[in-house]
TrEMBL record, chain A:
GO terms for molecular function: 2 iron, 2 sulfur cluster binding; metal ion binding; oxidoreductase activity. Keywords: 2Fe-2S, Iron, Iron-sulfur, Metal-binding, Oxidoreductase. Coiled coil: none annotated. This is (2Fe-2S)-binding protein. PROSITE patterns: 2FE2S_FER_1 (PS00197), 2FE2S_FER_2 (PS51085).
From TrEMBL, chain B:
GO terms for molecular function: iron ion binding; oxidoreductase activity. This is Xanthine dehydrogenase family protein molybdopterin-binding subunit. Keywords: Molybdenum, Oxidoreductase. Residues 35-150 form the Aldehyde oxidase/xanthine dehydrogenase a/b hammerhead domain. Gene3D superfamilies: Aldehyde oxidase/xanthine dehydrogenase, a/b hammerhead (3.90.1170.50), Aldehyde oxidase/xanthine dehydrogenase, molybdopterin binding domain (3.30.365.10). Signal peptide: none annotated. PANTHER family: ALDEHYDE OXIDASE 1-RELATED, XANTHINE DEHYDROGENASE. Pfam families: Ald_Xan_dh_C (PF01315), MoCoBD_1 (PF02738), MoCoBD_2 (PF20256). It comes from Bradyrhizobium zhengyangense. The keyword Oxidoreductase applies.
Length: 161, 797
């Protein structure tokens, strides 16, 4: 073990200064230090996608990134995307389509879905399935999630947002 | 029939104006989960909370010679290092048996192993520290000296004299055996035109809930009370078991269960490490948190299936099935789980094989054996996928043998829709099923003939597609016949309390639990509909043994059928009480009044008479203005349990359309259809999503999921990279249709829908793969249908 390291980063628009052990991963930093528990841990080895957050605009598995690597970056979590209203329409589509059951995969799923919708305005169903194929959901069977993302894409096309 | 619809002109929830029954409405309070602001146990922190990490056995079977905890105790942040012997002073061991499963035996199991470990992953010491990282660091400094013992791992040789007996006191490795015979089986086979046999093999798999099992247990020494925050399906069961083994009264244990990150039967059992966590909290007089990591989940969450079943079917040339015979073998690990036992799945297989068909000749044997692997127990659709795959596999083999279409052979043998009530050869009583209506509907939905044409056309181009059909029955709404009669203190009844609050809104406390199925929604829909208030005025509280009525929780497809009926009955009482008060205030007769859209109205013409808000104001703040002798009761409680039938059986049929790549062995799922009959549908979207989620869980078993053990009992793929689960890219769209045969045991008429999808998915896919491979004259009866299995069958590897 080595000594704590000072880090400074932006999390959901707030400046955060902290001293963290080099071995601390970003997911544990968000959950345990900042109490942002919307970022979930499902496998802790980068397979399930529950811990997906945005770092510098790109989605990453926060369980595979060290907190010290997030020094001087801009991190956005589900709480930030919710409060800014960026994904309000996507969340509404998930709610209306019952695209979540236990809700544990949902923050990561929304992160990955919004990432796709920012890249591509009207993805085909297969493309949605492909883009979300790194996010495990045991409850829904995925179809409702695909439907909700597709609906959101259509609505954004119509609204030209 | 135990329940007759009373006062239907006023109180049928199906017919009232503005009813939410049968309507797709979004589940209440989903924003909490959508914004990452839920309350999962893994999120919970309490003052002075410590973290426990378990050091687990690397051996499948070994004697513990010595445990040296001294170096670990010196590590920074460590609060305690506790062995099984020390913890045994706080918590007593248990034996997972039930008296109605005659002959079922098991050995005492301790919270932490004492003297011996019986599977790779069994806890040998608990390390409690100020952080999980500190506890994990210290765990590496606990030195355990083992003397490895020979492991019994293969269920096929578990009963051989040469195989070591895991628990000497039991005399052998046989946990349970059931033999059943009905009709004249030998005669039926002798009189058949053909008899077909096959050996079916089912891979051991597990639930992989996305949130691992999590507990925060907190002992308040001054109150002498333990509060357990746990993601569980059955809070009152946990309360009872924890109290029993810690030497407490039930009232000294409170179980709180808020959001749960997936359950599927994984979280309906009592696990040794959870018991250890409760005991550590009491021992250390502080909150202790245990969250399994993913490796621990694979090594200790119950596994399921792992059956080898010989099956035999007799058939006449006209397509009549003459008899079924099975011989099922399953290995359950070293202990029968507690308190539901590990014999239920094999017992279900015996109960369910042949269940959809009118055949009366049936012979079955099931044997349940111990082995040095992780424990096995009830997981979503307990026994159903085995029974359905064996039955439907045999039916397709019989059809192939006599050259009959798979749909036609089912038409000729499924129990007629007007033959109910009736009893199966295994003794199951069916109230009303709809196999033929369901089959007719699915054939239309999938356009069966068009698919057959497409299949024939593509086959000429070397593209091998197949259609698989699987009819099934599903156990739902269990009465005390499941566990209570065997001595388990697991409630089969559920209760609901509804209360009108001071602003005319409703608080509803229910003993069923929510893991995402929609318990909260269905309860609010029923309460809102029966009472005449809008759903946004109904707040549902679940998962707290201090607050809700006593009940079983959510498992075995029982929440809607049992908890929903309790909600209906409680709300009827509250509604009558409100109308009585309103009548007194308005100087009217209760029969002249109704409640619609949060307002008491004239029943005859809907004229508003008094708002519920105003009525509540008078009752709570100005009772002095009520007529003398009136004591309003704006809270009502009712309980419900089915009494007429032990189980409310549902039925359905699934169909799969697949393409098999005969070069790579990959199976592509093109489309999947389900028609099921769960009786009254409270929320169509929620039912459909239960079906879809269940199907995909079954598809995982069909194609991917298997806990791969080596012959020394080492689980070799205990991570999510090597243990494959269904992901969005491989899964098909699933069309769901319904036939509705309400149960008359309740006014609501709802049966369960949570497990139907899982029950038949693997059977449909396996039949479809075999149908695709017909030109190759090979039959596969093993799941998961991995490329290796398929290429081996094709003799390509």
């Amino acid at each position: 073990m080595t000594a704590p390291v000072a880090i400074s980063l932006s999390v959901n628009g707030e400046r955060v200064e902290a001293h963290v052990l080099p071995r601390l991963n970003l997911a544990d930093f968000l959950r345990e230090h900042l109490k942002l528990t919307g970022t979930h841990l499902g496998c802790e080895h980068g397979v399930c996608g529950a811990c997906t957050v945005r770092v510098g605009g790109e989605i990453v598995r926060s369980c595979l990134m060290l907190a010290v690597q997030a020094n001087d970056t801009v991190v956005e979590t589900i709480e930030g995307l919710s409060d800014s209203g960026e994904i309000a329409d996507l969340q509404a589509a998930f709610r209306d389509r019952n695209a979540l059951q236990c809700g544990f995969c949902t923050p990561g799923m929304l992160m990955a879905a919004q990432d796709l919708l920012r890249e591509k305005r009207m993805p085909a169903r297969d493309e949605i399935r492909e883009h979300l194929s790194g996010n495990y959901c045991r409850c829904t069977g995925y179809q409702a999630i695909i439907d909700a993302v597709e609906t959101t894409a259509q609505m954004r096309m119509e609204l030209k947002v | 029939m135990s329940s007759i619809r009373t006062n239907p002109e006023r109180l049928s929830v199906l017919d009232r104006p503005n009813s939410y029954i049968g309507k797709t409405v979004p589940r209440p309070n989903l924003d909490r989960l959508l914004q990452g602001r839920g309350s999962y146990v893994s999120d919970l922190e309490l003052p002075r909370m410590a973290h426990v990490v378990f050091l687990r056995s690397p051996h499948a079977h070994a004697k513990i010679v010595n445990i040296d905890v001294a170096p670990a105790k010196q590590m920074s942040g460590v609060i305690a290092v506790v062995t099984g012997e020390e913890l045994a002073a706080v918590i007593t061991p248990w034996v997972g048996v039930l008296s109605h499963l005659k002959g079922l035996k098991s050995a005492p199991q301790s919270a932490i192993a004492v003297g011996r470990v019986c599977w790779q992953g069994e806890a040998v010491a608990a390390i409690v520290a100020t952080s999980r990282a500190a506890a994990e660091d210290a765990a590496e400094h606990v030195a355990v000296q083992y003397e490895e013992l020979e492991a019994a791992t293969d269920m096929r040789t578990a009963l051989d004299p040469a195989t070591p007996i895991i628990h000497a006191s039991l005399g052998d490795n046989l946990a349970f055996e059931r033999i059943h015979e009905a009709g004249a089986v030998d005669q039926a086979f002798a009189e058949s035109d053909a008899v077909v046999e096959a050996d079916f093999v089912f891979g051991r798999h597990t639930g992989v809930t996305l949130e691992p099992r999590s507990v925060v247990a907190s002992w308040n020494a001054a109150e002498a009370r333990l509060t357990i925050h746990q993601g569980t399906q059955a809070p009152h069961m946990v309360q009872n078991i924890a109290a029993l083994h810690l030497g407490l009264r039930d009232s000294q244990v409170r179980v709180v269960c808020k959001d749960v990150g997936g359950s599927f039967g994984i979280k309906v059992h009592i696990y040794a490490d959870e018991m250890a966590t409760y005991a550590l909290a009491k021992m250390l007089r502080r909150p202790v948190k245990f969250v399994a990591d993913r490796v621990e989940s694979f090594n200790t969450d119950i596994h399921a299936r792992d059956h080898r079943c010989k099956g035999k079917i007799g058939i006449k040339r006209d397509g009549t099935i003459t008899a079924f015979e099975i011989d099922d073998l399953t290995g359950i690990g070293p202990y029968s789980m507690y308190p539901r036992t590990s014999a239920i799945e094999a017992n279900q297989v015996v109960n369910l094989v042949g269940g959809p068909y009118s055949n009366k000749n049936y012979r079955a044997r099931a044997r349940v054996v111990f082995q040095n692997k992780n424990v096995m127990c009830q997981y979503r659709a307990v026994g159903h996928p085995i029974a359905c795959s064996v039955t439907e596999g045999l039916v397709d083999l019989a059809a192939l043998e006599i050259g009959m279409d798979p749909v036609e052979i089912r038409r000729r043998n499924l129990i007629a829709d007007d033959a109910y009530p009736c009893t199966s050869p295994s003794g199951l009583r069916f109230e009303q099923l709809s196999h033929h209506a369901s089959l007719t509907k699915i054939v239309e939905m999938m356009d069966y003939q068009a698919l057959r044409s497409e299949q024939a056309r593509l086959r000429k181009d070397g593209i091998f597609r197949g259609i698989g059909i699987a009819s099934f029955i599903e156990v739902t709404n269990p009465s005390a016949a499941f566990y209570g009669v065997g001595g388990a203190r697991i409630s089969s009844q559920d209760g609901v309390a509804v209360r009108l609050d001071a602003q005319g809104s409703v608080i509803c406390l229910t003993s069923i639990t929510e893991q995402g199925q929609g318990s909260e929604s269905l309860t609010a829909q029923i309460v809102g509909s029966v009472l005449g208030v809008s759903m946004d005025r109904v707040r549902v509280v679940l998962g707290d043994t201090d607050m809700t009525p006593y009940g079983g929780g959510t498992w075995a497809s029982r929440g809607a059928g049992i908890g929903g009926e309790a909600a209906l009955q409680a709300t009827k009482v509250l509604r009558q009480n409100i109308l009585d008060v309103a009548a007194a205030i308005l100087q009217a007769s209760p029969a002249e009044l109704d409640i619609v859209n949060n307002v008491v109205v004239s029943a005859s013409d809907g004229t508003p008479r008094i708002d519920l808000n105003e009525l509540a104001r008078i009752v709570y703040f100005r009772p002095d203005t009520l007529p003398p002798g009136i004591q309003p009761e704006l809270m009502a409680t009712r309980h419900f349990v089915p009494r007429e039938y032990p189980f409310a059986f549902t039925n359905g049929v699934q169909a799969a359309w697949v393409e098999v790549d005969t070069d790579t062995g990959f199976v592509k799922l093109l489309r999947h259809w389900v028609v099921e009959d769960c009786g009254t549908i409270i929320n169509p979207q929620l039912v459909d999503e239960q079906i879809r989620g269940g199907v995909v869980q079954g598809l995982g078993a069909a194609l991917f999921e298997k806990c791969i053990y080596d012959d020394r009992g080492q689980l070799t793929n205990a991570n999510m990279a090597d243990y494959l689960v269904p992901m969005s890219g491989e899964m098909p769209d699933i069309d769901v249709g319904h036939v509705v045969s309400p149960t008359r045991e309740s006014e609501l008429g709802a049966k369960g829908a949570g497990e139907a999808g899982t029950a038949g998915a693997a059977a449909a896919v396996t039949n479809a793969v075999n149908d695709a491979l017909t030109p190759f004259e090979t039959i596969i009866t093993e799941i998961p249908l991995t490329p290796q299995v398929i290429l081996t069958a094709l003799k390509k590897i």
